[in-house]
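Notes from hallway chat w/ T.B., transcribed later so I don't forget. T.B. wanted the structure written out for a chain they're using in a teaching module, and asked if we could keep both sequence and structure tokens in one place. Agreed to drop them here.
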Amino acid sequence: MSTSPSLLKAELILVSVTIIAAFGWIFSKEALAELPPIFFLGVRFVIAGIVLFFVGARFFKGIRWQDLKGATMVGAVMSIAMMFWIVGLDQVSNIGVGAFINSLGVILVPVFARFMFKERPARSIWIALPIAVIGLGCLALGNGVSFEWAQGFFLVSAITFAFQFNLLTRMSTKLHVLVLTAIQLFTAGVVMLMVSPTIEEVPHSVSLPIVGWFLASTLIATSLRFLLQTYGQSLTPASHAAVIMNLEPVWTALLAAIWFSETMTSLQLIGCALIFSAMLVSKWSQVRAFLRRKTA
């Protein structure tokens, strides 16, 4: 059976989402040349949240105060994850390595669900974890016995993302995805703008190219990305979306190699391959469903 036009359309949209997300790493890195990281991301998220609010304004009608508080809490947790992520991006010497470390959050999501909500993870998770740990070790030691603080920041970000994703999953059954996304982005942005003045200095002016990178990261890599992701996920089974979204670190590493002429050692490439394999193993049931549809 061939892939239906609507399913193919959804898959192409979600692949484009992963590419846009990868470009978001590049846009952000360029903007950080003149903008302090937390301030940059705070303004970016506040604007993106406002844009999504106007796009999905009709879905905000009748929202309950309890649900609003829950979405705000998710946004506050998201702000912690994003602050570690953006500081890591600002300091990292190899964006591709950082992208794969950050993707470990995907594997940790069901582990957190086990302790937070007593959900029993699939057996594949316990197989994926040691593979991911070995991959992380290969990335950390890829340039010899050395350690970058940025790698630690990405790891903390991944752990916090896993916690935040579990909260987000619970809230997604109560609020429209656009409402939830707009609230959490806006909340995360406000929290970061409150933190920024206490630890970094905000510049009085920036060059025009930096303004362009900032707008690209805000309107394309955030607002457009989440709009396309919401639409694409509404057209395809969750198994397809889960598998396709794993492509983001792959595109990020490729773009970083092209854009910034980054290279990886053989050990780092092995680490990336192991982490990517662990991501697929952790979602093995979705991968099998994806392959069955493709071969049916």
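Follow-up for T.B.: The CA atoms of residues 88 and 150 lie 4 Å apart. Might be a good example for the class.
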